[in-house]
Write a structure and sequence with these properties.
- Two copies of one chain form a homodimer.
- Chain A contains ten helices and 27 strands.
- Chain A is α+β, with helices and mostly antiparallel strands and 417 residues long.
- In chain A, strands 6, 7, 8, 13, 14, 16, 17 and 22 form an eight-stranded mixed β-sheet that branches.
- In chain A, strand 25 and strand 26 form a beta hairpin.
- Chain A is globular and about 70 Å long.
- The N and C termini of chain A lie far apart (61 Å).
- The model of chain A has no long low-confidence stretch (mean pLDDT 96).
- Chains A and B meet through strand 7, strand 10 and helix 7 of A and strand 7, strand 10 and helix 7 of B.
């Protein structure tokens, strides 16, 4: 089961590609400024799903699913329809396909396309479910005794973010202005963030909507797929604003996601258990199967016109709560969830220093700047820095990848003066 | 300017109606289960705007604005178009109108309609901008010395809520289950909220989108109108979950809004200044004109099959920050704002005990239950209780009202066991 499936597209059969037949992630692309279409990545190509559906090659419903440049319509269907669609895709693209000649007409070289947001985000929630991250941040701000908040081992703590600020990989990120006050200042001032940071995360994309409390098992069923996610965070803005109602403008500049949604089906061979529980969870949040995934993750930093340094690498399997547990918790009070809701995992830090998924942790609050390959150092982001998140699950002789999640920092501008 | 404008619809000329020609609020209605249409309230009638536009009586754009059952398309136009539309409405409905005969065909008695959500909510933000409320809550939880958080006099503190949980007046509100832990408990448990509460607020509806920081003056221009808003809040869930990232499931059960959006134009004669500043605001948040409104507000509680008790009355003019200041702050970090974003003012409490806009304050954290007309008492909501918010600005011999914002509490059900 966990082996490379062969395609008639040679580049999809390489052990190095992120997009073998086993993966088939969903994105939105355009060529030469034309109207964006839905597409599926396969090796070095993209299958134009909008045109393939129009032609009848890939028609699975009586009404079209891919007329709009987003995957939301397929996402809103039942999981059976997701399976039917994926099965048909595999049939068309597998090495012995009788549809090869027809499908070739809908292949575009990945080199020629621009990628867009793969789905319309309904609402965005960000969690705090990485234990190493919560411990690191807690130790910095509250000392080792009180590092984990009292509720942390009982609920996946989350807050609502801004869907309007989600952008696709490749979008430049402007350093934010906002109100700031360092502990030494008497009064706050309005200025650009000097502690602008990243958060390495995996985002879960809700497919099936719900309208009331759901179980962890139902929640897992309702999840359509996963993306890489970088929750850009202004630590200095956060410090001044977050008491008592949580992060607001510190997290509202932008959140970048990978251009490809990797489906739950593609990740299925890489399911794994959450870590052992220090406190037993209440029944409504208890694990009911392996719902995390073994996904290798890394963060690179590239200074303006400079060399790439991998500054951290970790794995999604270290998280304390799965996305299914987060989604179940999200519905306990009756909160309706909708197709296109995006749930950030929380920062994914591992136990070692080079497993830390934020600069706040890597530089220990700015006290221990870390070195780049070119000899320069960083505590937080500088203008011109590019951050690249990479992620893939590794099978026997193949990878299931997300495509890079990239963002470059551009200088702050005050439009208000 | 501040006098009743006369209409050929007699019920619109009463000093008691909430919907004189001066108001013309925007809603969505249906009759006999038919497809919902956009409508404007006038006296005891609703003008069917969808049909009036179709007929050519009320056509102000080359493409139709009211085909969908929501006001978002008009909201997304420029303020000039808002004015053109309102001017034309006034012309049609004014006492000397030459369009009376044509318009009569599109009038429906308000008694015969069901009201729906007047607009599609993009995202929902709730603020904490009432000083009396913040002081009351702060005194209960942190004592009089530290009642106001250090940032409170410098920024309108807000958090992101859930757009999916916004419902129109008349929708029943199911008491939520969630994880709870009182200070005396060793471990949390999963149960129904025993401290379910209301928050009396005004919601500002964003019309013109923005994509980067905007000034307070631009923010005021971008606001389309206002609604009454009840942010149902589970205080026991909130107490356990809100540290360190703010309210989440405690605020996600539902938020009710009035069925009518009262336009900024209708409220214009009632503009007033924010209170004197204890600390001067930074330039980007400073007042630049009267941007609060003199709107009388009240809260009534009706036990199941019981008598109505007015439990509080206050005025929107006591708020420390205007919606324009909140919207400007919301954009400082670059956060894009979209047509249909909804901004809750925060709980509107006045200086006196009977001015308090939440049961938490009225019962002082449950320690001082308050009496109802029937002799029973309340600390928090009981199943079967109906809460009615009322609001109107009062001119010379006329009112500009929102229509009641009503919700009835129904018993908690645990679907998960």
């Amino acid at each position: 089961m966990n082996d490379l499936k062969l395609s008639w597209i040679a580049s999809a059969n390489s052990a190095e590609t992120l997009f073998p037949l086993n993966n088939l992630p969903y994105g939105v692309f355009s060529t030469n400024g034309k109207r964006p279409h839905c597409g599926v990545a396969i090796g070095n190509f993209i299958l134009d799903v909008t045109l393939a559906e129009e032609s009848g090659l890939l028609t699975i419903c009586s009404e079209p699913l891919f007329k709009a440049a987003s995957w939301n319509k397929l996402m809103s269907q039942s999981p059976n329809v997701w399976t039917t669609f994926r099965t048909r895709l595999m049939e068309i693209l597998a090495e012995d396909s009788s549809d090869q000649a027809r499908a070739e007409a809908f292949l575009i070289s990945s080199a020629d396309v621009q990628l867009h947001m793969p789905f319309t985000v309904s609402e965005y929630t960000d969690f705090y479910a990485g234990r190493h991250h919560a411990l690191n941040v807690g130790m910095m701000f509250r000392g080792p005794e009180n590092a984990l908040p009292p509720n942390w081992l009982h609920i996946p703590i989350g807050y609502n973010g801004r869907a309007s600020s989600i952008v696709v990989s490749g979008t430049n990120i402007r350093r934010p202005w906002s109100q700031l006050k360092s502990p030494d200042d008497t009064d706050p001032r309005f200025g650009p963030s000097a502690r602008f940071d990243i958060e390495l995360e995996i985002g879960a994309v809700v497919g099936v909507p719900s309208n009331g409390p759901i179980t962890v098992s139902q929640a897992d069923d309702n999840i359509f797929g996963y993306v890489l996610l970088n929750d850009w965070s202004a630590r200095d803005i956060q410090a001044w604003e977050y008491q008592p109602l949580g992060p607001f403008q510190s997290k509202a500049t932008a959140t970048s996601i990978s251009p490809w949604i990797v489906t739950k089906a593609a990740l299925d061979p890489f399911r794994c258990e959450t870590p052992e529980r220090e406190k037993e969870l209440l029944p409504h949040l208890r694990d009911c199967g392996p719902m995390l995934y073994d996904i290798n993750l890394s963060v690179s930093l590239i200074p303006d016109n400079g060399l790439e340094t991998e500054i951290a690498h970790t794995n999604y399997n270290v998280m304390y709560y799965s996305a299914a547990q987060q989604l179940a918790h999200h519905t306990t009070s009756g909160c309706p969830m909708r197709t296109g809701d995006l749930l950030g995992s929380g920062t994914i830090s591992g136990p070692r220093k080079d497993n830390r998924g934020s600069l706040l942790e890597l530089s220990w609050g700015g006290k221990e700047p870390f070195e780049l390959i070119d000899g320069s150092s960083r505590s937080f982001l500088e203008d011109g820095d590019t951050i690249v998140l990479k992620g893939s699950a590794n099978g026997h002789g193949y990878k299931v990848g997300f495509g890079d999640c990239v963002g470059k920092i551009i200088e702050a501008v005050n439009d208000l003066e």
